[in-house]
Amino acid sequence: MGFKTTIRSLTVAVAAGFCVAGAAHAADQEVKLGYAGPLTGPQAHYGQDMQNGLVLAIEEANKKGIKLDGKTARFVLISKDDQADPRTAVTVAQQLVDEGVDGVLGHFNSGTTIPASQVYHDAGLVQIAMGTAPEYTNQGYDNTFRMMTSDTQQGAAVGEFMVKDLHAKKIAIIDDRTSYGQGLADQVDKAVKAAGGQVIRREYTTDKANDFTSILTNIKGVAPDAIFFGGLDAQSGPMKRQMATLGMKMPFVSGEMTRSETFLKLAGDAAEGTYASLAGVPLEQMAAGKAFAAAYKARFKEDPGVYAPYAYDGAWNMITAMEQANSAEPQKYLPMLRKLHRSGATSQNIAYDAKGDLKEVSVTVYQVKDGKWEMVKTMVSQAQ
Predict the structure, then answer these.
(1) Quick one: which of 113, 131, 231, 295 is 20 to 30 A from 25 by CA?
(2) Distance between CA atoms of 11 and 78, rounded to whole angstroms?
């Protein structure tokens, strides 16, 4: 069975698992929740992790027997593969609208989330996305919400960490020109300067590249104290390996997409010492992180990745708002989502500000030690 077929089968199985046959359930209300993310291609491990978190929340909600407008809600996940491509994202967004979903939990990437958000806004649908570029919630839409801390908030913490904790005064920055990579790099650039550091080189690549020798050679020539990369693990892994080949021993720092098992595999022994930031706190320190991890492993027979717990909370945020509004109609549950305050897997204080950003800002920096990601420092504050 091919990978795409497996994904389609999982989606059908998810929906079928939520549907209970028989006349006794004729009075149930089907609530369709849309999801779009990269389910094929090099970013499929991100999209699958996110989808699994959503599935776990929806299955739990169905077991709970939530009532909406006097009927038992049967939540169904409608999944679409946006291939991490902006044009495809707009197409599948319209497909979700046409299929009559009651809310959208996605997209994953900033570059897909932002163009798709206009489709959902025009259709009057609530969207809770993983995409973290600041532009997403700066559009002035009233229907956009996040699952994770934004790149603005994460970049500020990382830039300060590099200057103050790593004592790096001269920093080189590379980004992959995606909305995510460039957005995060831009915020790190600002934060480095605000903390008293200097960005002595900005270089650019793409999310398809795998040879960074020329870029790294140019950077080596200016002798930075540290290098920051905004982009995917598919690039940061080879980049770190090539740094080692060139004898570049300065700290290498990146964002949450690098904090993955895939990076460790791609970088090999060269991964040692790498730093990566991640919105939120370590899973074992999350409000209900251990319980979530146990439930996830029992359901999917593997440990959760970075994004699953945030997707899980994102789904529960939407479902909770529906329950409080006693309705799956977006115009009715949207006000409940705006004033939501709940304790979830990732935080005991999940709430949104006026733009749809999370009020609680938490960022953790990890480092590869003995081939594993270990926590270095966690910074928690309230958004200004």
Answers:
(1) 295
(2) 7
